[in-house]
Amino acid sequence: MAGGGRTIEYTPTWVVAAVCSVIVTISIAVERLLHYLGKLLKKKNQKPLYQALQKIKEELMLLGFISLLLTVFQGVISRICISKDLAKTWLPCTEEYEKNPPKDVHLQDLLNSTFRRIRHGTGRHLLAASYNNPNYCKKLGKVPLLSETALHHLHIFIFVLAVSHVTFCALTVLFGGAKIRQWKKWEEAASQEHCDLDKEAIKTKFTHVLAHSFVRKRYRGVGKKHELVGWLQSFGKQFFGSVNETDYTTLRLGFIMSHCRSNPKFNFYNYLTRAYEADFKKVVGISWYLWLFVVVFLLANVHDLHAYFWISFIPFIMLLCVGTKLQHIMTQLAQDVAQRHIAVEGDLVVKPSDDHFWCNRPKLVLLLIHIILFQNSFELAVVFWILVQYGSHSCIMGSTEFIIPRLVMGMFVQFLCSYSILPLYAVVAQMGSSFKKAIFKEHIQEGLILWAKMAKKNADKKPPSPSTNLIGTDGDKSSQDESTK
């Protein structure tokens, strides 16, 4: 029989029922888990996180639909034939490698012993029997565009990508949230200090700019040499203590004095939390340009190019650039104050501005973080998929010296981006010229949106002004007089 196995007609009913029961049970359990998690987030008024969960469910549905299309059209795809010469171009592994694969050694034996049972259960069995004659292309002197075995492996890759993406998104919000929660005590201390100053308002306070901790640690003077030192300092600071208490309180005061001067007791921490959750909702999605990235690197996976090894450096390099830029923005804020003032009355106040960001767009940094997280998830998903499907000896994976750096680099990027860079962006992004709608609570946001819609609706229904009617009347009367004449 086509496909190399018995059909359901000759399979015991208890086997079919048992397999379906297990699959349905697992699917329902995952669906209920996501449902109750959503109810919990709504109960705790975590609307941005709830929307992020809905986004993840949409991505899972999309990946499931892609897998379904591959299953439905696998018969059609297997009947598309191409020439043998065309089938030998741009191969991930050479034919010589397939005929004489290298033997696993030492560490590879350890890895393969872990995944061998999984591969024996999935690697050579097909998803379903072929709907067509398997020798269809062979009779034409050609080969199938994509074999059923390759389609099956592609199914597994999509599944691994979905699991990796969801897992790393969850780790992102856990690590980032843990970091931001550490700032709550700084907010309480800053609010308490403000209350104490109110009681002693008769006393005048002066701050020496260069002696202030925020400026002293970042200002290095004027000139190209000092500017280079500032960039190097920003590069190193992203790895440890990305935001300290002085940074937080200084940026907090700068935001309040620029955007809500009338409310000096504004809770900056709650605003940051809402803004971080809103940003996370945008980060978890898979946009069209990210799918384009997947297609491009699947295309570039040609033997001897080691494309999957080199792409692991892309999120790492991008992350270092983003972290350095965010730190340097704080350095620029300190330099702006130090170059204008020697001493200021009251506390040190920095001036937020979009000019400090790339292309004057703070949202561009979030876009880069989005690309970094997805690229890193894709890279780690490829590593896990190759280990499960082909083993560590596969030519796609490369030698051992290629495996370890990819895993280490991927884990490092995930941790640094989640625990340091994304929380750093949450506070530095507020140093733009405008504020986000997260400055308002959820019910106020909804009220403002409703008010804006009603105002626009009333403006469209507004009757013409009396002056317009008079002009129209006069114009009609003049026209009648002219016609009479």
UniProtKB/TrEMBL annotation:
It comes from the Eukaryota. This is MLO-like protein.
